[in-house]
Records
---
Amino acid sequence: MRWLYTISPKSLLLILVAFIGNAQILGIDLVSFLLVPLFFISIPKDGTLKRHTLLPFCLFTILMMLLITQTILSDIPIQNYYLWPIKAFFIAMIIAFSDELNWPIGNSMMLFAGCIALIAIGTVIDGRLYSVFGPNMLYRFFGLLLFLSAGLLINSNHTKKILAVTFLGFATFGSILTGSVGAFAIILAVCLFVVTKMPKSFSIALGCLSIICVLTVSFYADRLAIMTSSLTVYNRILYKILNIEANTRLNGWNEILNKEISFLGFDYYDFSGIWELGYQYPHNIAIELYAFYGITGILTLLILLLGTFKTLKQSITNNFIAISFIVILIGSLFSGELSDNYAVVGMSAGILLRSKFPIRPLST
């Protein structure tokens, strides 16, 4: 049972700086404060770069410098928005050139304890959980615990499977409490991940059951809404599904994409007609990079795509960096802006650059 008490502080700190977004303490950006010591304890003392990573490293550095310049020159009224390329660069360097990274079960225990604390001190408002973070950041912590637990369930012995099931149940509960579309997208991704590891007959049966559930909701939506009028989270999901054509975000995305391509990106106020209370940015990292950064944003999107392809080509069951990247990537497609989603860019670049050191299995 010694595995239960083994932790990797460096990996925990890396996940913390990747997941807390624009968090501040006494007006100080918390990620900026934590990144410096994490960088120095992570990078090998010899500081060498392998020859085949030198050119990509230089190209990525130039791209980040261009993004920093554009961000500073732009007038985007989001607090500390200018910091996101710097945070992304440091996270990329830590992942690319850090020595051995691992995620022992003790780390999952710490994450589990943190998620319990977030719920314990939180409050539910209009059917959504608010705590130290808002619901659109909270579900990323629950989603990470959910995905890591699924990997542990698939690849561990009987004792650890019991622990994994406990984590899975709690993480699912916490994710649902947030009422966020991104949370349910992560739950769906975890289900697909688990299904691919199951026997084919089980996968087919589960797929048929899912189709039946979707059809039932579609045919009896009105009756279900009346029967569950007190279930605010359920009604929120049902409303979003049945009113997708009237979704403000989707309409905003459509307006942005229908504009002629701008080489340097559009001005923030070019879209003032679609910015509303609670919706001052696209809530989608791809649309945001395209709209505000033009060709530089498109090149950054290429890094995201290549990083995603490399991640999906390998086995993610035992790779906590890959799992963390997938969770943040899914979240960035539905919520937050780049001052919250900087880690998507940093992690994708780090995954592309990383080749020298191993990432040890989750269950060690």
Note: The beta strands are 24-25, 28-29, 123-125, 128-130.
---
Amino acid sequence: MRQAFDIQEYILRELDPNLASSFFNETSGSAIISRALRMEARWPIVARHTAGAQDCECEVAWANTYRVGIQYTATASRCGNAVYNRHRAPASRHLRLVGAVPNVRAAAFRQSVTEVGAEGLAAVATSTTTQTTLAGLSFNGLDGIAVTPRGLLLDAQKGFAFVVDCTQAKEFALAHWLVNGADGGRLFVRCFGGDGIVRENAAGDVLASLTTLAWNAPSKSWTGAATMADSSLIG
């Protein structure tokens, strides 16, 4: 499904107790685009998604509030949509770099005789665990990571991850590159509450674009259903 809506002088206003939303998207289509929306009152939700829609865009020409966004219900299975707020919010049209490690080989260090880490990243294990805290599941370095002339070679069930604060920012784009441009690896996400305790299988915690994230109970993590690959744009 690909639809574009050009809206002239369209005004959306919330009237209590009704919740106003420009688009109620129950589809799993893509590229549903709305332009020049005008939103009254202080309801910040421009669209509500309940299924697998992705690559959709909502352009807000005027709003009486900031942080306008898309609401994903508990039944939503994809994200990867964008809101462009033109009203007094030019920064909303720009991506901000949260973290970057251009060369993990250059960032590598010896944590101990057997353990290797990478500056700016947390070492993680995807194996079965009984740990429940951020400190117990994220490490400076781990064994099973070998330094090679071109990069780092990780054993199965070992990885590196960014630790990010999601209090304000909710959507992130991840780019990664393996040696010689090889495909491989899967998205791996662990969610923690403000108390540092891992959140286990909470509906709506994690959504991804172009792949479904499945709950892995033994490792207390969400993992991608498909390997990341340039050919399919997964990752």
Note: The chain has a mean pLDDT of 84.
